[in-house]
Amino acid sequence: MRGRNAHWFYLAPALALLITFTYVPVGNMVWYSFHQWDGLDPVMEPAGLDNYVRVFTDERYWRVFLISLYYFVASFAQIAIALYFAVVLSFSTRFRNLFKGILFFPYLLNGVAVGFVFLYLFQPDGTLDSVLRLVGLGGHTQYWLGDPDVANISLAGTSVWRFTGLSFVLFLGAIQSIPGEIYEAADLDGANRWHQFRFIIAPGIRRIISLSFILAISGSLAVFEIPFIMTGGANGTRTFVIQAYETAFQFRQIGLASAMAVVLLLIVLLVTWIQRRLLPDEEVTLT
Amino acid sequence: MIKRRNFLGSLAAVALLAGCTGGAGDDPADSGEVTGAITVLTNRTDLATGALPAYAKKFEAKYPGTKVSFEAVTNYEGDVTTQLSSGDYGDVLLIPNTVAVGQLAQFFEPLGGTEELKAKYRFVDEKAYDGQVYGLSIGGVANGLVVNKRVWAEAGITAPPKTPEEFLAGLQAVKAKTQAVPFYTNYKDGWPLSFFNSQRAILADPAINEKFPADPAPWQPGKVEYVTDGLLFDLVHAGLSEKDPLTTNWEGSKPMIATGKVATMLLGSWAVPQMRDAAKAAGANPEDIAFWPFPVQTGGKFHSRIEGDYKAGVSKSSENKATARAWLDWFVTESGFAADQQAIPPAVGQPLPRALQDFQDTGVELVELPAATTNAGKEDQIIKESEIDLAGNIYRQKLVDIARGAAKGDKDSYFAELNERWGKAQAQVMK
């Protein structure tokens, strides 16, 4: 296998998988989005741009995007918490491996399990209320999911709990790739921890921070399983993806739902592109 | 928060399977004799290893040389819908509700003419199209209120309330005099809310299913949706339902009504044996659980809709249709399955189960509403187009949210919105 085309031989399995499971389905989805189809009928009625017109003109379809704002704001908290712990735990701290494990653990849990756990946590007189009473904050208990003003915040909080571990691991890995001598030199120059963070760590991991923001935006546009399991989209917690799911599988409008999915895909691509333009991917130098 | 992939994944699964759609058509392997093996799909995971094989043994004894095996499907609607498009879906199966009546002929064998089968079976028109029947009910249910009558008696009420006002006053009394939650909506699990759609018989209009899709505004005073959804709105608005609807739990609600922590739920008669079992398990008295009609009388009488639960049909792609048909006929007429399940027997002339006899003895007329024929399938189309899931929970959850003050609007504004959305879709579908 030394010919000029040998590289194709090695690429073929990966390409086959990628095409079968990513590009063909996406192609199909785009195809469906121009049709009216219930997912069963052998005949698909061509619909032209009707599905797209409907997604953009009917308020009920695009309004659900506003719910994403809760998750977007929450993702700042998520990145801040993850960054803080990544910095603290990259220096020698007591029990640091234990803390690393604790922080990463939620990300390992299945999203369905997380939903159920938090469902019990947020129940009236559930875990959260009991804890609040125990520490003398009993007056602050409320319907964490039943109150529409609080429900989305509770759900976004659950999401932060679940995904902080992922950001944390990304940051930790990036921080540890910074050579230790730089800190020693900084110490000799009299830099304190804050200075080290400000002038060494933050610039050193800016690529990862920027990546985290891209993930945060696309993630918050595409929230699904936590609200789906915990509230089913009721009480004003319906996200765009839940709406698309209902359109596809409750109302059997696969074409319209595909159009929604295509719109979501385009928005995520667009946001990513804008972000890359605003924050160009410069080479990081630490000298 | 990275979850887009799962969604695309499920669409992809549909996409891959859809590639191989297509009916098998007439099969040369089908000899027309009742012999050989068949596979039966069922949603009753609880019965698939015990009760159902016991029925199969009897069938195999009657028709030597046959072999019936069962395939239990947990997420029946979703999984079987996907299987349908793959062409491989057993020999006898319950017809998923996702199949529109107009599509029945693509996936199921016709079982006979509606008129002809009507003489033998109840509920034949529920899965029929163009005068052909595609599915037989495996047991029927009545619709109404499951109550804990001990709690209601403590509140001073022993007979079923006759009007919505009387019902609301009764719930108020339950709230004032007992510790029970007067009415439990099961909002979180959602599907129990759909029983507000199962009360169409209350106005005693046998043509209601035919008229329904012809009506551009079903949420007007006097119309059935106004009466039923309106009652849901009023009782939630008056604070007579559970405090935090977002954390309800269906499995948990059974012992709650059984022990008197909940007084009332709107369900089907199938729920009565389940609640009684829960009472036994919790050490409460199973006789506390009773079944009452929906609190509306027409012409001085209660009316309760009876309808077939899942309808079973013979797969169009089956390779052993004769045996499949024999099993289906035997199962609905001779197996005794309906009686064992306390359901209305699908064969005409067989006696009602005890719980329903008691119910009928309270003076309720059991009404079988004919399905729409000239407007067959139109209602489903309007539902799809307007995304008002009459037979589901999405818009009723919003209704509950508005009623409890958790979403903007009031009864009039929401009903006006529903009328408008429904009317718009209705105009398109019925044009």
Automatic annotation (TrEMBL), chain A:
It is found in: Cell membrane. It is a multi-pass membrane protein. Its main location: membrane. One of its GO terms (biological process) is transmembrane transport. Belongs to the binding-protein-dependent transport system permease family. Gene3D superfamilies: MetI-like. InterPro entries: MetI-like (IPR000515), MetI-like_sf (IPR035906). It comes from the Bacteria. This is sn-glycerol-3-phosphate transport system permease protein ugpA. The chain crosses the membrane at residues 7-34, 69-91, 103-122, 153-175, 208-230, 250-274. Keywords: Cell membrane, Membrane, Transmembrane, Transmembrane helix, Transport. The keyword RNA-binding does not apply.
Automatic annotation (TrEMBL), chain B:
Pfam families: SBP_bac_1. PROSITE patterns: PROKAR_LIPOPROTEIN. The lineage of its organism: Bacteria, Bacillati, Actinomycetota, Actinomycetes, Micromonosporales. This is Putative ABC transporter substrate-binding protein. It comes from the Bacteria. InterPro entries: Bact_solute-bd_prot1, SBP. Residues 1-24 form the signal peptide. Coiled coil: none annotated. Keywords: Cell membrane, Lipoprotein, Membrane, Palmitate, Signal. SUPFAM superfamilies: Periplasmic binding protein-like II. The keyword Membrane applies.
